[in-house]
From TrEMBL:
PANTHER family linked to this entry: METHIONINE SULFOXIDE REDUCTASE (PTHR10173), PEPTIDE-METHIONINE (R)-S-OXIDE REDUCTASE (PTHR10173:SF57)
One Gene Ontology MF term: peptide-methionine (R)-S-oxide reductase activity
Protein name: peptide-methionine (R)-S-oxide reductase
MsrB domain sequence ranges: 48-169
Organism of origin: Pseudohoeflea suaedae
Pfam families, alphabetized: SelR (PF01641)
Keyword flag Chaperone: no
Gene name as annotated: msrB
GO cellular component: a single term: cytoplasm
Gene3D superfamilies assigned to the protein according to its UniProt record, in alphabetical order: Peptide methionine sulfoxide reductase
Length: 177
């Protein structure tokens, strides 16, 4: 009986200790600072200093450092006018109002992008696996794609409004997010 208790206790302590070590190592892992926009060969490639001149502080943080704007703060979240959403970094048309819907999350959401407008990569930050979405022309970060969207795709492109500008179909005017 003592041997059985000792074995159970040893297994329990080893399991708890191993879990603590894994968790602690993740917390103590040196942070590399701010994330950067997707690296790669893009048609438009500027230095960080050039991007800072081109973008406002919020746009730079989201598009170039993969920050996330606070939910329910973008004027584009409740915009349902007909038109096209462009990348705020390079003005590439990336989403149509035809694919926009209210996901209730507080961020502009779409069930699909325009053809050949976006790129994706795996994002393992925040202890989960997600699909990051970015501009295929400049690599600017838009947000993430989730598998809980409406038909016909079942996808939810959850985007930072500050990473987009809106061009109304009729007026031709631009609205920043």
């Amino acid at each position: 009986m003592t041997s059985s208790r000792l074995n159970r206790r040893s297994v329990l302590l080893a399991t708890v200790g191993g879990g603590a070590i894994v968790g602690l190592s993740a917390l103590l892992r040196p942070f590399s600072g701010k994330a950067e926009a997707t690296e790669g060969d893009f048609e438009i490639s500027l230095t960080p200093a050039e991007w800072k001149k081109k973008l406002n502080a919020e746009q730079f943080a989201v598009l170039r450092e993969e920050a996330t704007e606070r939910p329910f703060t973008s004027p584009l979240n409740k915009n349902y006018a007909k038109g096209i959403y462009n990348c705020a970094g390079c003005d590439l048309p990336v989403y149509s109002s035809e694919a926009k819907y209210d996901s209730g999350t507080g961020w502009p959401s779409f069930w699909q992008s325009l053809p050949d407008a976006i790129g994706t990569k795996e994002d393992n930050s925040l202890f989960m696996r997600r699909t990051e979405v970015h501009c295929r022309r400049c690599g600017g970060h838009f947000g993430h794609i989730f598998d809980d969207g409406p038909e016909p795709t079942g996808k939810r492109h959850c985007l930072n409004g500050v990473a987009l500008t809106f061009v109304a179909a009729e007026a031709g005017g631009t609205t920043s997010g």
